[in-house]
Amino acid sequence: MNSFPNIAIDGPAGAGKSTVARLLSKELGFLYIDTGAMYRAVALKAIRKGVDLADQPGLSRLAAVTSVNLKTDAEGNLRVFLDGEDVTEEIRSPAVSKAVSLVARVPAVRERLVELQRAMASGGGVVMEGRDIGTVVLPDAEIKIFLTASPEERARRRREELAARGYIVDQHQMVNEITERDRIDTTRAAGPLVPAADAEIIDCSSMPVEKVVKMIVARVSAGRRE
């Protein structure tokens, strides 16, 4: 295995992909690429501009003139820039969470962002998380992980995340939103959410994030010894 393999982490909303990928990238000294944040940035712009989320040609035109950049700040945290503006916090709002799947299903939007993501991974040594990384964006990634958890557990995690930002959402409502997002993500024509054939599936419903990170680090270490 390459000493700086690309690591693809896929999974449904609320599975803990971002947390695992962030900790893993710090542990290995790799670049962390949050592809979901890139789609959220485009969704935020669509909301701001009043673009109908059912208007796929309109969303395609919007994506074509949108710049999304990812940078790591001095504390090692990922910052998301939309046309030069730091929108790291705003893209996590409930409104964007509802809109993002509708934006991400548009083929032209995905094609634009996939091109940017592949360019960032071309030198190896990235931890990239999303919903079609192992199947579409980086099908040749040396390590592929499909991280999942029960809808109830994912809803609980997402509620806690939103509460920390000042948004209070009912558990039943959140389970329904998670379930609907799963339906949209798994049935879309472009890059549907499915595990890659050679992905390791990890159910972290009752597994601490530190254990998940150790499992993946062990895989990287084992690969380097081969």
Shape: globular
Mean pLDDT: 91
Q: Over all CA atoms, what is the radius of gyration?
A: 17 Å
Number of domains: 1
**How many separate helices?**
9
Examine the secondary-structure arrangement and name the CATH architecture. 3-Layer(aba) Sandwich
What order do the helices and strands follow?
EHEHHEEEHHEHEHHEH
The structure class reads alpha/beta
Q: Low-confidence spans: pLDDT under 50, at least 5 residues?
A: none
CATH superfamily: P-loop containing nucleotide triphosphate hydrolases
Describe the structure.
It is a single chain. The model has no long low-confidence stretch (mean pLDDT 91). This protein has a single domain (7-220), classed as Rossmann fold, CATH 3.40.50. Helices cover 51% and strands 15% of the residues. A hairpin with a 5-residue loop joins strand 3 and strand 4. The protein is globular. It has 226 residues and is an alpha/beta fold. It has a five-stranded parallel sheet with strand order 2-6-1-7-8, sandwiched between helices. A three-stranded antiparallel sheet has the order 3-4-5, covered by helices on one side. It has helices at 17-28, 35-49, 56-64, 94-104, 107-121, 133-137, 151-164, 171-187, 209-225; strands at 7-10, 31-34, 68-72, 78-82, 85-86, 126-130, 143-148, 200-203. The longest helix is centred in the C-terminal third of the chain and has 17 residues, at 171-187.
